[in-house]
Amino acid sequence: MAFWNRKKPDVPAAGEELDRTQLPQHVGIIMDGNGRWAKKRGLPRTAGHAAGAETFRTIAYYCRDIGIPYLTVYAFSTENWKRPVEEVATIMDLLHKYLLEVLEKMERDGFRVHFFGNLEPLPPALRDLCLRAEETAASLSGKRHQVNICLNYGGRDEILRAAQAWGRDLLAGRQTVEDLTDEAFSRYLDSRGMPDPDLIIRPSGELRLSNFLTWQSAYAEFYFTDVLWPDFTPQVLDEALAAFQRRQRRFGGV
Ligand code: IPE
Ligand code: IPE
Ligand code: MG
């Protein structure tokens, strides 16, 4: 049995009908609704981001415990720089503080943490922290639960960065035009070597992808819920997983 299937879930499942042997291999989550959650409570939006960070921790460990090998979360998009500078600065500070705290624990607890997105424009201290985490991830051996955190990530930006890298390899004679296949191009994406997401979840009632995993979501199943991200629980995830298991995936076949 695979390493990640061994541990029993420590949170009671809401969906009794959930088939633990038919779980998605890769779940993507757009962690949305932090601001509205805070507003409802008369709190500053940043309090919502702090609460959302706690939800991330709970859900990451739950995914590990029930045996979902890959989790990709959307934390900050290439469009989120449009927000007021104070909100962006607070999000970056929160991310730094929070990542500093969780990265080491997550590595100890059997995770491998990766970052998707262009880390260049991030505040230098945060970028260094992400790069250190990437180095650690590369050095960790054995099968681990993979968590990908999308930071300054945009699906279109990812495809463009991949196209630039491929173009450089073409000019250097390491690639040929004829050899460019779906699979070959995928190796230039942030998600190289990983399966595409089977299930993408968006809380907070918005019905859009907002530039999340544009390439990889081609055949993903989608689950939308009105629950705001800080209120998202393992039970809500179970509902999404149960809905996923009721879907019939055809991938263009019959
Ligand atoms: C998601 O929550 C977090 C980020 C985009 C950084 P929002 O901040 O978008 O919360 P709402 O959508 O305004 O409620
Ligand atoms: C998407 O949420 C990005 C993240 C959750 C990080 P947004 O709140 O930025 O998306 P829009 O603006 O509603 O499309
Ligand atoms: Mg939002």
Task: Lay out the secondary structure.
Layout: E1 26-30, H1 34-40, H2 45-66, E2 70-77, H3 85-108, E3 111-116, H4 124-139, E4 145-153, H5 155-171, H6 182-186, E5 199-202, E6 221-224, H7 234-246
Parallel strand pairs: 1-2, 1-5, 2-4, 3-4, 5-6
The protein binds 3-methylbut-3-enyl trihydrogen diphosphate (2 copies) and magnesium ion.
Describe this structure in words.
By secondary structure, this protein is of the alpha/beta class. The protein has a single domain (36-245), classed as Decaprenyl diphosphate synthase-like (Undecaprenyl pyrophosphate synthetase, 3-Layer(aba) Sandwich). The protein is built from seven helices and six strands, in the order E-H-H-E-H-E-H-E-H-H-E-E-H. Helix 3 runs parallel beside helix 4 (124-139). One 3-methylbut-3-enyl trihydrogen diphosphate (IPE) binds next to strand 2. One 3-methylbut-3-enyl trihydrogen diphosphate binds next to helix 1.
Q: Which characteristics define this entry?
A:
single chain, 254 residues, alpha/beta, Undecaprenyl pyrophosphate synthetase, six-stranded parallel sheet, 7 helices, 41% helix, globular, disordered N terminus, binds 3-methylbut-3-enyl trihydrogen diphosphate, binds magnesium ion
